[in-house]
Amino acid sequence: MNHAFDPLNLLLLAVAVVVFWKLRSVLGTRTGHEKTIEFPPVNDKPSPAPRQEPAPAAEQEEGVRIGLPEEEKPVWEGVAEEGSKLARVLEAIKEKDPAFSAQAFLDGARKAYEMIVTAFAEGDTRTLKPLLSPEVFAGFRQAIQDRKQRGETLDLTFIGLDDARIVDGELKGTLARLTVRFVSQIITVTRDSEGRIVDGDPNAVTEVIDVWTFERDVSSSDPNWTLIATESPEQESA
Fold first, then answer.
1. Are residues 231 and 211 in contact, defined by beta-carbon separation less than 8 angstroms?
2. For burial by CB atoms within 10 Å, which of 37, 62, 125, 199 has the most?
């Protein structure tokens, strides 16, 4: 049976064909070999800077070497004058013990000074013993015992250090000795068994000058220095 030709059906067919081909041209067809685009995750943080690859060896030969530490400063810098006896001693200690630092030694000496002065005033021999040589410890302990026998107490307020500097040094074999001059501000008051002041002034700050010598075997794994000698020169006027 013949059906009448409907122009509307032809128009709809034509539109369908055009739409199909346009979609095909945009989407294409999957063949199984396409690459998938991976989008980075979205966040509020800025993306990290791209990694800098090391420069070729030929480029590192010129100018500042990339990635190499700054040249180490001389061990005596800031502590002694170049070419002086003390500078040569510090260099010799550094040669024996590469980990030695004059500045680090001074920092430790400052802390040790306050600890020793405070412990002596308090009669704390347990704190003193590992910091002092046997000879110095014996002298400190005797002074503490004499003070107790007299019934006296020593009240000390450590205000602070005005100065601490290495003034001398020597190295004999592996035995190093460094002498430090300390200038401190301290309030001291000695009282008798009745609490009466027998020496010092609780309202007066006194400048105290001490010259102490520390010793250490630089071949030892023990990094601590020991106080081996003390001296109190005449106090200088402010």
1. yes
2. 125
